[in-house]
Design brief:
The chain has 6 helices and 4 strands; from the N terminus they run ααααββαββα. The chain has about 130 residues and is α+β, with helices and mostly antiparallel strands. It has 2 domains: about 45 residues, no CATH class; about 70 residues, Aspartate Aminotransferase, domain 1. The chain has a 4-stranded antiparallel beta sheet, covered by helices on one side.
Length: about 130
């Protein structure tokens, strides 16, 4: 699920498992054939063969998640997350989500917490919208 997110390839549909052959056989029996498009295979092959791309991506994700944390700090406390998404506690997650949505910023709230909100990293062109929403 995160292959496309990590590499900055929104919409790329690709999943794979690396495991012992017996585990792969069990997974295959459960899932069945799952076709992967030729373009997805080509892009994945290039991405996985390019260590510089991976290193640059890790650096960008770390910088962007730190930037998001700085922007959210006056409004929230960091609960957790990864460099792909961040989980924050805010006073009222539903109201915060509504405010962000008014700026076309999509987030996730949770039925089991009235204070948690999850944000993904915005694309470069959307940072200013996030700043305006906050």
């Amino acid at each position: 699920k995160s292959f496309g997110k990590f590499w900055g390839l929104a919409g790329l549909r690709l999943g794979f498992a690396i495991a012992h052959p017996s585990t792969i056989a069990s997974l295959s029996a459960l899932i069945g054939p799952w076709p992967v498009s030729g373009p997805a295979l080509e892009v994945a092959t290039r991405a996985l063969s390019d260590p510089a791309w991976a290193a640059a991506t890790r650096t960008r994700l770390a910088q962007d998640s730190a930037r998001l944390d700085r922007l959210m700090a006056p409004h929230s406390s960091l609960v957790g997350g990864t460099t792909l998404f961040r989980l924050y506690a805010v006073p009222d997650a539903h109201s915060f989500q509504t405010r962000l949505a008014q700026h076309q910023i999509w987030s996730r709230i949770f039925p089991y917490s009235s204070t948690w909100i999850r944000l993904g990293l915005p694309p470069a062109a959307r940072w200013s919208a996030l700043e305006a929403a906050l």
